[in-house]
Amino acid sequence: MERNGGYSYLCVRPPGVRRDECDEPERTPDLSTHAFPQAAQRLPETVSRRPDADETLRVVLACLGDMKAEDITTIDLTGKTSIGDFMVVASGRSQRHVGAVADNLVKELHVAGIKQVRVEGMRQADWVLIDAGDVIIHVFRPEVRDFYALEKMWASGASKGRAAR
After folding, report:
1. Dihedral through CA 153, CA 155, CA 156, CA 157, nearest 10?
2. What is the CATH number of domain 53-160?
3. pLDDT over 70, % of the chain
4. 0.85 exceeded by pTM
5. Farthest-apart Cα atoms in the chain, separation
């Protein structure tokens, strides 16, 4: 193979024919000069789309409603803190219900394209904290929720309501 001016000359010859007996060398572009600019022009396709905060909130509220979570409260954190855009506080009827709600919510978030979900408190299931990036979810047993009273801490701007069923 010879290099000349950005092209490689490749002699395509049948078996038994010597290199110097090759009549017309085939001219192929040199990869170092021609293939890389074309590759740089192509943009990678996105494999998955991460939902924005509003879409994540919609998924969370739908899942909490489906799992029969009680007293669902949504708190808008925009302008109050940089930890997230929304905080959702909900209650389960028992430890088992709190654990089931949290487990199902994590699965639904994964299906929605949110892969980096962090979960704390799943083993005890008194208070499960789920960090979905822009939306932070707290699932409590009612007694624990009354004791910590997170809604009072973030009181201004809280909107209380049940998720649509």
Report:
1. 120
2. 3.30.460.10
3. 63
4. no
5. 91
